[in-house]
Every structure is written in C-alpha cells, then in structure tokens.
Design a protein that fits this description.
The structure is a single chain. The protein has about 550 residues and is mainly alpha-helical. It contains 22 helices and 6 strands. Helix content is about 65%, strand content about 5%. Strand 3 (about 105-110) and strand 4 (about 110-115) form a beta hairpin. It is elongated and about 100 Å long. The two termini are about 30 Å apart.
C-alpha cells in the first residue's frame, strides 16, 4: 500500500469530509432553495461592492493621466510665450534646460535681451521645477501635484504600493474570513477602504499617499475576495457558477463609470473623495447583511443559522419542515473525532498494528500545505499557480495600462469596460454550453493571440488604432476568464483545503500584480514588448489549462 506523507489528508477521512460537504450543501439547498427573492436581494448588493473596490483600483489610471509639461520659466520671464520658451531653452523631453544664467536674461517689448547668440555648444542641466498644461484649468493630477516627472517619475513604484497591499489581501483574506466570518470581515474592510480612501485625498506628500494606498489595496482586495465567497455561498446548484460570474460584472461596469466620473472631475483630490466617502452609506447594511449559511453550519453556530434560514424562507415564500432544526443538527461536522475513531480509521486504511495515539493524532492532523503540495494535488497546484499568474499579468497589464498604447484615455477605457461587461454576460452561456475548462482555454488563448497579433499592425502613429483595438479585444476576453477562474479553481480541491487551494491562486495573482508595473517599464526598449510578453503568457496559460482536469 502506498505510504502516506505525515500531515496529508487521509483518503478515508477525506472521503468522509466530502460526504459531509455534500450533505450540508443538499440540506441548505432544500431549506433555502437554489435561488429565490432572498438571494436575489443580497447577491446584487454584495456584487455592487465589487464596483466600489474597482474604483479604488482603477482610479490611479486617471489620477496619473498624461499631461504636457516643461521646465518652469523664471519669474521674470513669465511673459515669454510657452512655445518660444520651450523651443529656445530646453530639450525635447522637457526634462533638461540650457545651462545659462537666466538672471541675466530679460524679456522686454517682445524681445529677449542678453540671450546667447549661439546655443549649439551649450550644455544642459536637469530642471528643478516644472510647469504643466492648463488644459484642465486649476485641476491637478497626482503627477502635477508632486512633480512626478523626469528623474522624479516614480509612478510605477507608487502604483506598486497599492498592488503589494492587494497581493497581501488576496493571500490573507481567505484565512481572515474563515476565522472571523464573511459578514464581519467584509464590512470591516469596506469601512477601512472607504475611510482611508477619503483620508487619501488629503495626502501632503508622496510618502503619505503611498502608505495609505498600501492599506487601501489590502482592504480593496479583501472586500473583492470575501464578497465573492459570500455571494456563491448564498446560492446552490448551477446558480453558484452563474452568480459567481455575474459577481464580476460590476467590475467591468465600474470601468465605464470611472471613465465618466474622471472625465467630469479632473482634480485628483476631488476625484478621490468622490469615489470614497459617498459609499459610507453602504455601512448601513451591516446589521441586516446575512452571514454565510455554509460558514455558520461549519462553525456549529446553530442559533444564528436558524434565524437566517427562517428569514430567508419567509422572504422566499417557502414553508420550512417542522423538523428543519434537527435536519441542520444532523449536518453538523464532528469538531474533534475521538482517538478511537482516528485509530480505527488509520488501521482500516493501512492494515497495520495499533500505534501510539499521540503519534497517530499528529500524522492525521490535516496540514493544508502538505495536502495541496502532496502527491495527489501537486500537479493541480503548480498548474493553478501558472494559470493565475499568466491571467493576472494579461488582465491587469491591459486594464491598468491601456493608456500606454495611446488614444483618448477616457474613451478607450469606457469602450473596453462596456465590451468587457458584454463579454462576461456572454461567458455564462459559453460555460453552460461548452463546459468550464474549454471556456477557460478559449478565453486564455485568444487574448494571447490578440496581443501577439499587434506585431502585424504597421508601425507608426497613424496605426495605433489597430493596436488599441486588439488590446481592447484581448482585455475583454481575459476579463471573462477573470470572472470564471475563481469558481474553476475552487472545484479542483477537496472541501477541507478548498479555501487554501484558492488562496494559492490568489498568491500567484498577488505576485503578478507586483510584476505588472515593471512589465510596462520594458516599453522603453520596444513599444510592443509588454504586449508580446502578455501574448506568450496567454499561450503558457492555455497550455496549463489543457493539463488541468475537467470539472462539472
């Protein structure tokens, strides 16, 4: 008989745990129904939280929107036209200034006085102060506010701070919600996200801005993950897949809304307040928000579960059986199996002589790391890491940096969001018709091919529309993949380590989030190099999906 690694889940006990999960799911489905008015009330409200998170993730794109700049004119040369000043005094990139003594230069009666007659042999020095285009009036971007241009251009690092917080939230959110419950975890981090999001608008330095963005990033990703978990745990049957995908729909819609709000509100501080403090109203649902019935049952909190089931049944218009409480009690997990049960389970499985009970208890205690990296699941885990890593590189690489490709930042992102929303809706029918694995395969391979196809577009500014169109198509397709992958990953692991297995995917996505800003730094070597890397990532991810097992 095959030897079992200490700490791995005993197959006999694993089967028992899976049977218990099926019993709990069937019990809750009978009492709550697959979907009803109660679920239809709370699922949209919880999904709306995804949009609020996306505002915080995506608004940085507009807060750092490109704006023309140049080396600042000395105070006594303010009457000199900007065009003449730029042509006469500085390099084409607006970062360097002719190295002359400007205090000796004057501008009188439309003429420059004491300006050097031959500047060809003069050297340049780095600008210390900058002026920015007044196309938006008094409204300032984050870049303009803190002078993040030329040698001080640390916007990628500033963005990375938020993504590092989001990466930590992606990894830890599952453990936090398992420990403290979905409801209180969700609303606590909604509060943190909203309050600190408003405080961010009053940042007095880049360091303060970056520190607060780490906190907001952690909170936003935690809200994103936990709201998804809670939504799919309120429904049953095929609706878990459908609602799980629709839960991501507000993300795409919020791209459109963000573009419209940012177009109307160009000042970064006002924009930050607009996407933060109005959502304090969402805290009003905290008292009425239901806890996950599956979590309550797993924790043995029957009194709370009875109240939840009765409220849901009343709203759904269903009549509970008189013995429903005993039915729920029968589905309770055994918190601590007795030593005798453990000994009997191991002896039945291994056919060996009795062993010391202390040693046996140590060996049968489930270690999720040893399970997901054990012989049975290590292939699934490694492939999951690759799939999530490549998916997030493409999705957020395009979502957060679509403006790098040129065109109007507001129109491009609004169009991309609208098409992505349609793509997510259509993906439900694709998944139900073609199956979840084949759908994922198509939604991974096609975006990769679109990114690589940008190499076939003739070079030049006149052809940037073709590159942008292919990037938008890729973004919309990978957006559908992003909506499907959490449900698919959850189906790959046994119940006892399912949250940890999904957490491994979130770990890979966290690493990808940190890599995305650095990826776009490569465009200084070749404008299409980031897209080529994303294209190759799509192909690698597609190969990994073909090697995964299919699920129903």
């Amino acid at each position: 008989m095959e030897e079992q690694t200490p700490g791995e889940l005993s197959p006999m006990l694993q089967t028992s745990a899976d049977d218990l999960e099926q019993l709990q799911s069937k019990t809750l489905q009978q009492l709550l129904g697959c979907i009803g008015r109660w679920q239809c009330l709370w699922c949209p409200i919880l999904s709306f939280l995804q949009a609020i998170c996306t505002f915080h993730i995506f608004v940085f794109v507009f807060q750092t929107a490109p704006k023309d700049f140049w080396c600042a004119r000395p105070a006594h040369l303010q009457d000199l036209s900007i065009t003449d000043w730029r042509n006469l005094s500085q390099s084409s990139n607006g970062c360097q200034l002719l190295d002359i003594d400007y205090s000796q230069v004057a501008f009188e009666n439309g003429q420059l006085i004491n300006w050097p007659s031959n500047t060809a042999n003069l050297s340049y020095r780095q600008c210390q102060q900058f002026e920015f285009s007044d196309v938006d009036g008094d409204a300032k971007t984050l870049v303009q506010e803190f002078g993040l241009v030329c040698g001080n251009n640390i916007t990628s690092f500033v963005e990375m701070c938020f993504l590092m917080g989001a990466a930590a939230g992606a990894v830890l959110s599952g453990w936090i919600s398992d420990r403290f419950g979905r409801r209180h975890t969700l609303m606590t981090f909604v509060s943190i996200q909203t309050i600190f999001g408003g405080i961010l608008a009053f940042s007095t330095s880049v360091a303060m801005f970056m520190s607060l963005r780490v906190i907001i990033g952690f909170a936003s990703m935690t809200v994103t993950v936990v709201s998804f978990v809670l939504v799919v745990e309120l429904v049953s049957g095929k609706w878990r897949t459908i609602i799980g995908i629709l839960n991501i729909l507000p993300v795409a819609i919020s791209y459109v809304l963000s573009s419209g709000i940012a177009y109307l509100i160009r000042d970064w501080r006002t924009l930050q307040l607009a996407i933060s403090w109005p959502w304090l109203i969402m805290l009003s649902i905290w008292y009425w928000l239901p806890e996950s019935p599956r979590w309550l049952l797993a924790q043995g909190r029957l009194e709370e579960l009875y109240q939840l089931v009765e409220r849901a049944a009343k709203m759904n218009g269903t009549t509970l059986p008189s013995n429903y409480q005993k039915t729920l009690e029968a589905a309770l997990p055994k918190k601590n199996p007795t030593q005798t049960e453990i000994v009997n389970a191991l002896q039945e499985e291994t056919k060996v002589a009795p062993v010391e009970e202390d040693k046996l208890d140590l060996e049968l205690r489930v270690n999720p790391i040893l399970v997901v990296f054990g012989r049975k699941y290590i292939r699934t885990t490694l492939l999951t890491l690759i799939i999530w890593l490549t998916l997030i590189i493409i999705y957020f690489g395009l979502t957060l940096h679509l403006s790098n490709l040129g065109g109007n930042i507001y129109i491009n992102n609004a169009v991309a969001g609208a098409v992505e929303a349609l793509s997510i809706c259509l993906s439900i029918f694709v998944v139900l018709k073609a199956g979840i694995r084949r759908s994922l395969l198509g939604y991974m391979l096609l975006p990769g091919l679109c990114c690589l196809a940008t190499n076939l577009v003739p070079h030049g500014d006149d052809n940037e529309t073709g590159v942008i169109a292919l990037a938008i198509v890729a973004k919309c397709l990978i957006g559908a993949n992003n909506a499907i992958i959490p449900t698919y990953t959850a189906m790959q692991y046994p119940t006892i380590v399912r949250n940890f297995g999904v957490g491994m995917g979130n770990l890979a996505s966290g690493i990808a989030l940190i890599l995305v800003p650095s990826l776009w730094q490569l465009e200084q070597y070749d404008a299409l190099l980031p897209l080529n890397i994303m294209g190759v990532s799509g192909i690698i991810g597609a190969v990994a999906i073909t090697l995964m097992k299919d699920v129903e």
